[in-house]
Design brief:
There is one protein chain. With 179 residues, the protein is of the alpha/beta class. It has one domain: TIM Barrel. Helices cover 37% and strands 18% of the residues. The chain is built from 7 helices and 7 strands; from the N terminus they run E-H-E-H-E-H-E-H-E-H-E-H-E-H. The chain has helices spanning 8-14, 35-38, 51-64, 87-99, 122-139, 154-159, 168-172; strands spanning 2-5, 23-26, 44-48, 69-73, 104-109, 145-150, 164-166. A 7-stranded parallel β-sheet has the order 1-2-3-4-5-6-7. The longest helix is centred in the C-terminal third of the chain and has 18 residues, at 122-139.
């Protein structure tokens, strides 16, 4: 069973309460100051959004003996409110990312712009798949995962090649905001 969590503090509370065979992925924005806390909790990190964050993960993983699996977040729409590599910056940094000794790059991740119609997300999913395919060809690597699609558009994402979808809202309802 695979669960995702987007907040390190909540994961620290939830993970010990569930059976040990549950596998955990971090699916939110990982702040650089939370890397040390997050590494022992998660087997994969979906939203690695910069070379600086990947380098921090690599450095701390070397200190702790971890070998984290990562997905690189791409901001294809260029939204200022979202994190992620631009396609150009990802292509420029990709060789350095592959050279990080402690992390294993396993694919790409996207959160497209909010849309009422799931079909409006299709072009972003297809573009991410195309970028992944291009990187695989150019760098002769295998990137098996595309993390794309959420509760409102996961069917379209799967049609476009998603291997991991984030459907917590469909399963558990809206997250309660504490204030």
């Amino acid at each position: 069973m695979l669960f995702g969590e987007s907040r390190v503090q909540e994961a620290k509370v939830k993970i010990p309460l569930l059976p040990s065979q549950v596998r955990w992925h971090f699916i939110g924005h990982l702040q650089r100051n939370k890397v040390r806390q997050a590494l022992p909790l998660f087997e994969m990190f979906h939203g690695i959004d910069s070379m600086a964050l990947a380098s921090d993960i690599n450095r701390i993983a070397a200190e702790t003996g971890a070998h984290p699996r990562i997905l690189l977040e791409v901001n294809l729409a260029g939204e200022a409110s979202k994190f992620g590599f631009t396609p150009d910056s990802l292509c420029q940094d990709f060789e350095r990312l592959l050279g990080l000794e402690r992390v294993q790059v396993e694919g790409l991740m996207i959160i497209p712009p909010v849309a009422e119609n799931p079909e409006d997300s299709r072009r972003y999913f297809a573009a991410l798949r195309g970028l992944r395919d291009s990187l695989q060809n150019q760098f002769q690597v295998v990137l098996p995962h595309l993390s794309m699609g959420m509760s409102s558009d996961f069917e379209v994402a799967v049609e476009e090649g998603a291997t991991l979808v984030r459907v917590g809202t469909a399963l558990f309802g809206e997250r309660k905001v504490e204030g």
